[in-house]
């Protein structure tokens, strides 16, 4: 069997002395898109923060493997170089730096860490123009500081643009649909779908089903009280939408 892009084994995580993740197991093979659904507070974002290597999240048990490499031993920037990209629910603002400049610096930081030469300005311009057009991002937006004063939709589109330029092997999208109107949702979904490839995997985290009409997952996992309690095909998302999460919570109480 080929090595999965992502493998999470019995992951337990504490935040401020409270156990939030209670034994997460997940295998994400190359080329697949998996969705994680679950109600607010079930621990979905905690999982994405742990993947990102955010401080204050204490892993007490378990492991995370990215292309077979131990992620928990890597610094956040090393994870990015290893092919991990995370799009967060609340993207950070980068005041004083034009989005364009930020994007080029991000690409070059990764190229440098991989021992590659810097991207040439014409190559960079071409790549930004191509990816930006697909996402309806104009040059005006690229001159503004990243995320500063961006609308919800603009933030998400800027994030997908970063993803398109950095070409990660694992994309984690946490609540990418929140704050999007229907038009923006379609643009973002189209951008994400264009990045689906046999070498790339995606983890799409959401508590609504509607995003999954546009980004159709291979597998849907239900998250409840810090673990995956059920997995199925895309129809599971529709069933959840109809019946809610109450069935799972009973076991918790
Ligand atoms: N930094 C933190 N400090 C204290 N509690 C936290 C922190 N982050 C998350 N939690 C708690 O962890 C639980 C899971 O939160 P989260 O992972 O954000 O869930 P979801 O993304 O599924 O809504 C919640 O009860 C939340 O209050
Ligand atoms: Mg969340």
From TrEMBL:
Keywords: ATP-binding, Nucleotide-binding. Signal peptide: none annotated. Residues 6-250 form the ABC transporter domain. SMART domains: AAA. Coiled coil: none annotated. The keyword ATP-binding applies. InterPro entries: AAA+_ATPase, ABC_transporter-like_ATP-bd, ABC_transporter-like_CS, FeS-cluster_ATPase_SufC, P-loop_NTPase. GO terms for molecular function: ATP binding. Gene3D superfamilies: P-loop containing nucleotide triphosphate hydrolases. The keyword ATP-binding applies. Belongs to the ABC transporter superfamily. Ycf16 family. PANTHER family: ABC TRANSPORTER I FAMILY MEMBER 6, CHLOROPLASTIC (PTHR43204). This is ABC transporter ATP-binding protein.
């Amino acid at each position: 069997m080929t090595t999965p892009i992502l493998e999470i084994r019995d992951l337990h995580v504490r935040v401020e002395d409270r156990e939030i993740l209670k034994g997460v197991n997940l295998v994400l093979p190359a080329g697949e898109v998996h969705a994680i659904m679950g109600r607010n507070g079930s621990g979905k974002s905690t999982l994405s923060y742990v993947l990102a290597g955010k401080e204050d999240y204490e892993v007490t048990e378990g492991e995370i493997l990215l292309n077979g490499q131990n992620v928990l031993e890597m610094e956040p920037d090393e994870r990015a170089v290893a092919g991990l990209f995370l799009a967060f629910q609340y993207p950070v603002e980068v005041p004083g730096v034009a989005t364009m400049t930020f994007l080029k610096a991000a690409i070059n930081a990764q190229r440098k860490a991989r021992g590659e030469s810097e991207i040439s300005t014409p190559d960079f311009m071409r790549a930004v123009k191509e990816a930006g057009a697909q996402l309806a991002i104009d040059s005006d937006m690229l001159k503004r500081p990243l995320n500063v004063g961006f609308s919800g939709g603009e933030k998400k589109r800027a994030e997908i643009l970063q993803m398109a330029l950095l070409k990660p092997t694992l994309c984690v999208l946490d609540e990418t649909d929140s704050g999007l109107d229907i038009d923006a949702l379609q643009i973002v979904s189209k951008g994400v779908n264009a990045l689906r490839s046999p070498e790339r995997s995606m983890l799409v985290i959401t508590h609504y089903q509607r995003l999954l009409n546009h980004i159709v997952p291979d597998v849907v996992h239900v998250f409840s009280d810090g673990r995956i309690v059920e997995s199925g095909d895309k129809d599971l998302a529709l069933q959840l939408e109809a019946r809610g999460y109450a069935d799972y919570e009973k076991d918790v109480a």
